[in-house]
Design brief:
The protein has 347 residues and is of the alpha/beta class. The chain has 2 domains: 191 residues, Quinone Oxidoreductase, Chain A, domain 1 (Alpha-Beta Complex), CATH 3.90.180; 131 residues, Rossmann fold, CATH 3.40.50.720. Helices cover 22% and strands 26% of the residues. The strands form 4 sheets. Strands 3, 4, 5, 8, 9, 16 and 17 form a 7-stranded mixed sheet that branches. The protein has a 6-stranded parallel sheet with strand order 12-11-10-13-14-15, covered by helices on one side. Strand 1 and strand 2 form a beta hairpin. The protein is globular and about 60 Å long. The protein starts with a strand and ends in a 5-residue tail after the last strand. The structure holds NADP nicotinamide-adenine-dinucleotide phosphate and zinc ion (2 copies). One zinc ion binds next to loops.
Length: 347
């Protein structure tokens, strides 16, 4: 066992606090990662605050992990000591079911093992990336290409893949008009990816505050959703809408912005269900889709795509003592555009 420093939520209401946790001995196919940076995802907050149901505490959140390999198990072939690597939302799955065989491990029929808050194969509760080290099966460790800093790479492991996957699946590219709803951690990655894929990108944000940033990140157009004229002006305008909002939306209002047969892909995960009117606007041939992170193969493809196109995430690196403040800013939609913890500062 390796005793390591971490930051944990000890209940749904308390601020996060320093803690030490145990990491398991390496199995033959395990990799020990020395974590350098860990991104803060809104899912960390939903999870630790019980939005998605009761949790077993303490919870060490964090599923946007970037660092170096410092040890490998006896049978590891995919990674070596010193490699720049990452880990995302999953640390294991069955490998044998129909979905695992397609490298859609996030849909493993036996349930993928989440990076935190899940029961691991050895029966222990998994603990996430707000810590100095993590042990991950080699198949769930990603290579971070040269050219992307480890700090700006960390958020790619969740925000990056979660937005890349539906953009690819629904054909974002030249000639396609893509709207991104919500300019936070996921939203800003959706803008960067869709722009790099060659789509015409529009940001729909609550206010005009993030307009300059959105245009710099690669958006072609920007509208405030607080202005009701936006919905009249943009009726039928988009082939694809990627909804990254962490709260409920008026689905009918957004579906009316799609062309006939257009798709609204939902990656935001609010606690409450959302309703929609099946008659209109949905009957305009429209598709409402869900999407959950992405498989390991597609995550590596996304990392390589980002390196080829020369971008990572737009980040604000913070010391561990500012994690609680960062969570408050995420909740207030005041993140520009992903907080990343420098794990060297874990006390
Ligand atoms: P985030 O950084 O907080 O971004 C969410 C953005 O949504 C905010 O910046 C804000 O953008 C907008 N927003 C927030 N509250 C709103 C409201 N009441 N009405 C309208 N817009 C609002 O969060 P994130 O880390 O990107 O995560 C976003 C959501 O995706 C979370 O629910 C998270 O759990 C989920 N998620 C899902 C997956 C998946 O696999 N499906 C993976 C990761 C995360 P503006 O200020 O621009 O309006
Ligand atoms: Zn996440
Ligand atoms: Zn499986």
């Amino acid at each position: 066992m390796l005793t390591v420093k971490a930051y944990a939520a000890t209940s749904a209401a308390e601020p996060l606090a320093p803690i030490t946790i145990e990491r398991r001995e390496l199995d033959p196919h395990d990799v020990l990662i020395e974590i350098k940076y860990a991104g803060i995802c809104h899912s960390d907050i939903h999870h630790a605050r019980g939005d998605w149901g009761p949790q077993a505490y303490p919870v060490v959140p964090g599923h946007e992990i970037a660092g170096y390999v410092t040890a490998v198990g006896s049978d590891v072939t995919k990674h070596g000591v010193g490699d720049r690597v990452g880990a995302g939302c999953m640390v294991n799955s069955c490998r044998e079911c129909v979905n695992c065989r397609k490298s859609e491990e996030q849909f493993c029929l036996q349930g993928m093992t989440g990076t935190y808050g899940a029961v691991d194969r050895d029966g222990a509760l998994t603990q996430g990336g707000y810590s100095t080290h993590v042990v991950v099966n080699e198949d769930f460790v990603l290579r971070i290409p040269e050219g992307i800093g480890l700090d700006e790479a960390a958020p790619l492991l969740c925000a990056g893949i979660t937005t890349y996957s539906p953009l690819r699946r629904f054909g974002a590219g030249p000639g396609k008009k893509v709207a991104v709803v919500g300019l936070g951690g996921l939203g800003h990655m959706a803008v960067k990816h869709a722009h790099a894929m060659g789509a015409e990108v529009t940001v729909l944000s609550q206010s005009l505050k993030k307009r300059e940033d959105a245009l710099r990140l690669g958006a072609d157009h920007y509208y405030a959703t607080s202005d009701l004229a936006t919905f009249e002006q943009l009726a039928g305008a988009f082939d694809l809408i990627v909804n990254t909002v962490s709260a409920r939306l008026d689905m009918d209002a957004y579906l009316s912005l799609l062309v006939a047969n257009g798709t609204m892909a939902n990656v935001g995960a609010p606690a409450e269900p959302m309703s929609l009117n099946v008659f209109s606007p949905l009957m305009g041939g429209k598709i409402v889709a869900g999407s959950l992170i992405g498989g390991i193969r597609e995550t590596q493809e996304m990392l390589n795509f980002c390196a080829e196109h020369g971008y990572g995430s737009e980040i604000e690196v913070i010391p561990a003592e500012r994690i609680n403040e960062a969570w408050q800013r995420v909740l207030a939609s005041d993140v520009r555009y992903r907080f990343v913890i420098d794990t060297a500062t874990l006390a």
